[in-house]
Each structure stands twice: as C-alpha cells, then as structure tokens.
Write a structure and sequence with these properties.
Layout lengths: L1 H14 L5 H31 L2 H24 L3 H22 L3 E2 H17 L2 H22 L4 E2 L4 H4 L2 H49 L2
Parallel strand pairs: 1-2
C-alpha cells in the first residue's frame, strides 16, 4: 500500500507542479487521456490479433507504444508539450491512414479524429501550432474530396458498421475523449478566470489600505 501511495503522490506532484492552472489542466488531460488510450489500444491489439486485419494490428500496436512513451515524456520532462505533439501527430496519422490506406473514405470516426486534432492542437499548444496542425489534418480531407468527390463521405453509421463491435467501441470512445477534453479544459479555464478575479480583488483591497495609510 505504501508503494502505491508513493506512486500516486509522485504522479500528483508532477501533474500539479505548474502554478498555472491551464498548464496543470493540460498535464492532467494528457496524462489521463494517454493512459486510458494506451489501455484501450492494447485491447484493440488483442482484438485485431485474433480477427485481423494485419495493418490495423500494426497501427494499434504503434499507437499503444507511442501513448506509453508520451506518458513517460510527461514525467521525464515535467512538460506537457512533448506529449501533446505526440498525441496530435498520432491523431493526424489516423486521419491520413484512414482516408488513404484503410477505408478510402471519410466516415464518422475519421471526422472525430479531425475534430480531436483541431481541438487538442489549439487547447494543448497555441494558436500557431493549432493552425499548422489543422491544415495538416484537413489536407487529406480536402484532397480526398477533390479526387473522389463527396460520394465517399459517410457521416451516418451503416448497418454493417453498427454490427461491428470494434467500430462502435472506437466511435463511442472517441466521443468520450472529446467530452472529457473539452470539459476538463473549460473547467480549468473558468478556474483560472476566478483566480484572476480574486487576485484583482485582493490587489484592489491592498491599494485601498495603502491609500488610507498614506493619507
């Protein structure tokens, strides 16, 4: 129990080391998202190992390993940025490989990956990085539409996809991640605003006291 408690305390100390609540939120989001995703993709590795296809197995194994490495970078560097770049690049890879190597179309899961890439790049990094990654992830979508038209865009879930437990699980997992990322970041954003308001109040009270002292 002491070992587990020590590990949990160490994790908390690293995740909460930054005094900026927004950066702390970034650390928390990346740690929990990458940890959960590594476990989830490990399950996909087992599923694809049993049922195929081989490319999906290789891709899932690569994502799982990269997520574990991203968690390691959080604790090795005590910085969220390396892990953020890893996560966003993996999402971009999923979009490109889905469109041009696996389904040769744009389905709802691919759209989820596009939304997560754009959301994470702006939330986790900055405006410039957000614009660059947004262009990177939108490029295959635009290219596919130009080359193939809009006939291969599948926003709805077909009966075949609905009967595929792996597809449904991935789709629901992606929705969960989108909700988690937006909720946690906006919660931290409002917390930061409240801290700023409290700081302004304290500063105002201090100024008023100083004025009274020097009258």
């Amino acid at each position: 129990m002491k070992v587990i408690s020590g590990i949990l305390n160490y994790i908390k100390s690293v995740l909460n080391a930054d005094s900026d609540p927004i950066n702390r939120a970034r650390m928390h989001i990346l740690f929990y998202t990458m940890t959960i995703t590594s476990v989830f993709t490990a399950g996909l590795v087992v599923a694809y190992a049993l049922n195929g296809p081989l490319f999906q197995l290789i891709r899932s194994a690569f994502i799982c390993a990269a997520m574990v490495y991203g968690v390691y970078k959080i604790f090795a560097s005590h910085d969220y940025k390396p892990a953020a770049h890893i996560a966003i690049l993996l999402l971009a890879m999923l979009v490109w490989s889905n469109i041009f190597l696996i389904i040769h179309a744009i389905n709802i899961v691919t759209i989820q990956y596009v939304l997560m890439t754009i959301t994470c790049s702006f939330y986790m990094l900055n405006g410039r990085a957000g614009m660059i990654y947004s262009i990177v992830v939108m490029a295959p979508v635009i290219l596919h539409v130009v080359l193939s038209g809009t006939n291969n865009i599948q926003v709805s879930v077909s009966s075949q996809q609905a009967s595929d437990p792996v597809f449904v699980t991935v789709m629901m997992f992606n929705f969960f991640l989108l909700i988690f990322i937006n909720y946690h970041f906006l919660r931290a954003f409002h917390f930061a605003i409240n801290l700023m308001k409290e700081s302004q109040k304290d500063e105002k009270l201090l100024n008023e006291k100083l004025k009274k002292l020097f009258r």
